[in-house]
Amino acid sequence: MESSKGVRDAAHAAASWARARRAVWAGDAPLPPAPTAPRRPATASPPAPLKPEPRETVTAARTDAAPSPVVVQPPPPAAPPPPAVPAPVQPVVQVEPTTHPAARHEDERGASPLAAVLPFLPRMAAAAAILALLVVGGRYVAGMLATRESSLPAATSTKPAPAASSARKATGVLRVNSTPSGAQVLVDGKARGVTPLALDDVPTGAHAVEIVSSEGTIRRSVTIDADRPTDLTESIFSGWVAVHAPFDLSVTEGSRALRADDRGQILLPPGRHELRLVNRTLAYDQIHRVEVTPGEIARLDIPPPRSTLTVTASDPAEVFVDGARVGDTPLSDAPIDVGTREIVVKRASGGERRVTATVTMKPYTLNVDFSR
Q1: Overall pTM > 0.70
Q2: CATH superfamily name and code, 239-301
Q3: Which of 287, 285, 241, 243 has the alpha carbon at shortest distance from 266?
Q4: Of 258, 228, 223, 221, which is closest to residue 243 (Cα–Cα)?
Q5: Beta 339-347 vs 352-359: how paired, if at all?
Q6: If you classify domain 170-235 with CATH, what class do you get?
Q7: What is the chain's mean pLDDT, rounded?
Q8: How is the chain split into domains, by residue range?
């Protein structure tokens, strides 16, 4: 009897432990205690030899996941009773089937909206987490793509990049020689050396070249080609300037007076010169620029400068200059060439006045009184 009671107590303890574990897993209140299994009435039977009592396995049913089987270890067998005492009958432990916690709560508290939603809360939470992950991940990926596109170099555009060789400006060769040698060479105003000189880094295109020596300066314009060298050879020695004007002129350069030879030519070193031409009598004072080439004559033709003529008379009259009629009196600001001019004023009723005048750069005025 003591053995049967121990087995029964062990079975009740195992069932209580299984219900407690199931309540913890389901997150609900513990289940009510299971009813006690009814005892089977003992029947008289002949005594049988004692056998070791088998282990009983109590499995708690669960709807979502079956827990590991619970093995109930019965207490060690007691000492064999005296032969007069019959062997005890092994009790049968019945485990009632369990129901789902949600169904049990519906039975206990009745159907409610919260009880209906509870089984789906884990799935809803998982769906919300996935949706939030997709939104945040989508924004992150879009930001990364925008940053990558903005950081792409200009070379990724569809327009083909120019070749590296065309990006560097082409150059050509310039060779400069002079007679006499040793003249300084300037390319676009920058000193590059003395003659004879060969430059292989001159950019292609037009350039201004100056060859400067004590004998003079020669200025030339050259065009550099990348396919073939450009040669510039100059002889640096004096040239001449011939000045032609309708009146006498004095020629100076700076503070130095220049005199013409018996042919009316002035010897000058090659290069560009600024000559000042002056006639103080005619009030003529102008500067002219001329380029002198070695061994050649540069001609400087001075056109007759013009002034103005104003003529008044006591009687109506006509005005003639060097035999050409220019108008009637009163005549105002008529154009006239500078120099010595013959002016004739003829009265309409007869008579005239003849004047030889020196017309200068200043306006010339003539008054004629026929009553005298």
Answers
A1: no
A2: Carboxypeptidase-like, regulatory domain (2.60.40.1120)
A3: 241
A4: 258
A5: antiparallel
A6: mainly beta
A7: 75
A8: 2-119, 170-235, 239-301, 306-368
